[in-house]
């Protein structure tokens, strides 16, 4: 476009200068008149701010929360104004935050708009640079410094430092704080800390004892690791193999900040800390950020990331339908989106949640958005799950838009059902969009432009949900007797003789767009689809699914081997809450539909599952779900299989914040944290354990506790780390990170809490095989390390969590003594 050509000519420096100087723009809020505000990029280039605002310091958008910047009048807010109200060259929208809000701006001229759009894109690209960890840390320090500087004089007084330490959950004696404050206060302006001095002060309080002990255990009590020491650590603890000298040199060059150490090619405590806090020391396998599974198997061998009511931004009764939600879920890795179509005014089909007060959006706008974003984050096929409530003329319009807008992305393969023996693979269907919907019967006159389809032939949500209401007419006892006594589970709800059969007219033009994904109703889990049915897709709601899970889980697994199945939330979830997806994955259900607009535990499980294959939207199902007989509800679903043992040592926490909903905010009490680890997978694998509580320390609590889990089917298990603040009357949630078991890395790892800069827990991970009930020996860390680790529990009870240079030397001396005692004991036992 003209915009993008021009924007390439604007230099990064010019953009930054203009943005930091600031610009007056109109902020649209959907009212008749916009609000004129002064927008500027802050001095650290970490967020956009505006004034005046009643939110004061909170009137900002951080750069790392921005999903996208769109030029022109693309957002829903702009559509509320007359077409000629604003020049599109003056307009742009910033989409940001977990719930994808939009900030819609109108500048005073086109050049200004282009400068902001280009500058924001430069900043967003910078976030993904290799040095982003160091930059993120620096940005965090800058933001922390700015927020602590209450009087805005560019320095921190001792009083402001005390307030900041309380906010950061640091519990130190005032005398100790004053001593470190004076040590860091080196310039002429005595009695306050500038930014550089604050960085020195922060380094003093955040030096890691746990990492220091690991380092000296591998360096023969030297205060640095040479390349040989580093190699031993990586091989023994991190289980790395085939290390070459160049790789080790690269680690030192990348992470060691001290020029003297760089010259000697050794890693000091700061370099070692930087390395273990980088993605290389993260619990998540970095190789799983890319596609790492076989993508050449038939489509029905995969779990597929699926969205429910994609268009909704909130609940099912009153919330906004938004075109941007399609961009959001597709960029979040979702590969199956829902399009709920109804007749609209002026012959234009619309999308909204039928029979409710949710707002309406145009079908055409949605298809254009899908066309733009379908393959920006994943090349693998997108399935459009069309819920069709339109009359034939508007169905023809839908088909026309699908062909015109999607063009060669639309999969129009000529499929001969009798010749095809299996579905194509995600690899073959790369870049293709499949339409899932109703199809005209094969025996209909080929020249007929439309025909009747009964609800016998469909698997649509709305009809099933109406059937839920019919179900209420059966008494509870009759219903139970029927379900329990039947030998082959027939879905009574759909085949009741009392149920009215419904038909609808279907356009040939729309029917012909459905190829591999024809919607069909489920009649009988056991017998349906024993012929050729792989190209059929059925949809069942959670209420019916839960009955099947209880009564016929093995048959459900076999059904899922024959055809695709989509599970969606009950219509009683008017708040758009999410169900637990795990039981449906356990029976091999391919498309478990989630309300992506609703954050929380269930969506976090979904995100963790699909993250383990590059977040491409497809995860291979285990072999036992694709071919063999398998019943996930049995006590021993995989007879003769070895269990896997996960040994987790929860060592320490770093910079854990106060709970989000803390009554007194940053001024609230210093937290008393504990860690809870949960295994979520097969019923027999479910387990939950927790550490003890550490009182009054959220900044650097030490737990040093080992948790052991035995897991039968690790390939579908998720490991959830949760940090809680203990309270006399309960507990408050601090944060979480959920990781697929297969994506966990062994050794010493940081578990960063989702969405929290700098907050993490430090763990040691060991994974072993065990046969039957025999527990194999736990993989122990280095013997020297065990001797040294004994010191940590002592230190945990000391009030000084700081290691200055003298403190290091004292610790080093006592460590040697401890080691000698350990070695003497070893020789005596021999």
TrEMBL record:
What positions does the domain C2 occupy?
627-755
* Classification via Pfam families: C2, EF-hand_like, PH_12, PI-PLC-X, PI-PLC-Y
Q: Which reaction does it catalyse?
A: a 1,2-diacyl-sn-glycero-3-phospho-(1D-myo-inositol-4,5-bisphosphate) + H2O = 1D-myo-inositol 1,4,5-trisphosphate + a 1,2-diacyl-sn-glycerol + H(+)
Q: Where is the composition biased (Acidic residues)?
A: 446-475
Enzyme Commission code(s) on record: 3.1.4.11
Q: Name one GO biological process term.
A: phosphatidylinositol-mediated signaling
Which keywords label this protein?
Answer: Calcium, Cytoplasm, Hydrolase, Lipid degradation, Lipid metabolism, Membrane, Metal-binding, Repeat, Transducer
Cofactor(s) this protein requires: Ca(2+)
What residue ranges carry the coiled-coil annotation?
Answer: none
Annotated EF-hand domain ranges read 136-171, 172-208
User: What region holds the PH domain?
Assistant: 17-125
- Localization terms from the record: Cytoplasm; Membrane
Q: Which domain of life is it from?
A: Eukaryota
What GO cellular component is one of the record's annotations? membrane
Instruction: Give the enzyme class.
Output: hydrolase
Q: Which InterPro entries match?
A: C2_dom (IPR000008), C2_domain_sf (IPR035892), EF-hand-dom_pair (IPR011992), EF_Hand_1_Ca_BS (IPR018247), EF_hand_dom (IPR002048), PH-like_dom_sf (IPR011993), PH_domain (IPR001849), PI-PLC_fam (IPR001192)
Q: Which GO terms describe its molecular function?
A: calcium ion binding; phosphatidylinositol-4,5-bisphosphate phospholipase C activity
The residue ranges of the PI-PLC Y-box domain are 510-625
Query: Where is the stretch described as Disordered?
Result: 442-475
- Record's protein name: Phosphoinositide phospholipase C
Q: What is the lineage of its organism?
A: Eukaryota, Metazoa, Chordata, Craniata, Vertebrata
- Recorded name of the encoding gene: plch2b
